Amino acid sequence: MSYNKTILNNNNWFLILLLIFTTCLSYAFLSNDRLPVEYTSIFDEHNYVDIVRNFKYHFTNQDFTQYYNSRIFVPFVAYAVIELLHINSTIENIRTVFLVFNFVSIAISIFIYYPISKLKNYSFSQKVLGFTFLFTTFFVMKFAGFYPVLMDVFGFTSGIVIYYLWLSKKQYLFYMALFVS
User: Fold this and answer.
1) Cα–Cα distances in Å, from 8 out to 19, 91, 107, 123?
2) Is the pTM of this model over 0.85?
3) Average of pLDDT values for 59-73?
4) Per-residue pLDDT for 145 more than 80?
5) For residues 160 and 16, what is the distance between their CA atoms, to the nearest angstrom?
6) Model confidence pLDDT, tens digit, residues 161-174
7) Taking a C-beta distance cutoff of 8 angstroms, is the pair 93, 149 a contact?
8) Are 160 and 116 in contact (CB under 8 A)?
9) Using the 8-state DSSP alphabet, how is residue 37 labeled?
10) Handedness of CA 94, 143, 109, 73 (dihedral sign)
């Protein structure tokens, strides 16, 4: 009797790839390799840190420029988390909150990638290549942990969510996601 069944079928290979990716991403996010605090004034991070620290003031005085109005949702959530958990709003704590947000955001993207690949009827090799090209990049694996206080990861995730909602023809959710992002 020649029963030829492999232990590692296509779904198992994808799970193994996902496990390896998650391990590498966790290591990258848990390392101490971050943008040095003294350089935050050069980049946009200092503006987001200020928004999170003084959100009530900026919101009541309508102090946001048009650029930051379009990016207010994530700093508001960071502010709410810091207030709810009674965390001091130091740069390091704000970075940690954003680092957790980035990790969760990437996890959501990965979770949504699988239904997209099913809706598009991707073959196994297309799923693996798509996953590799989207998630094993410098942006996801390194930059999101090195420079956590940015809105780029949330833009990446909202793009994947919006694409999924468009493919699945969920119009109300699609428009809500467009509004939030």
Assistant:
1) 14, 45, 24, 16
2) no
3) 76
4) no
5) 22
6) 999 999 999 889 99
7) no
8) yes
9) G
10) positive
Distance, in Å, from the CA atom of 69 to the CA atom of 152, rounded to the nearest integer, reads 15
**DSSP state string for 63-81:** ---HHHHTT-HHHHHHHHH
Coil, strand or helix at 164: helix
Contact partners, residue 43, CB within 8 Å, separation at least 6: 35, 147
User: Which ranges in the chain belong to alpha helices (H)?
Assistant: 10-30, 45-53, 55-60, 66-69, 73-84, 91-119, 124-135, 138, 144-146, 152-167, 171-180
Tokens of 133: 């090209």
Tell me the two tokens of residue 26: 């966790």
Burial of 3 (0-12, 13-18, 19+ CB in 10 A): exposed
Q: Please report the pLDDT score of residue 150 as a whole number.
A: 78
Residues 7-40 have pLDDT tens digits of: 445 666 667 777 777 777 777 666 666 656 555 5
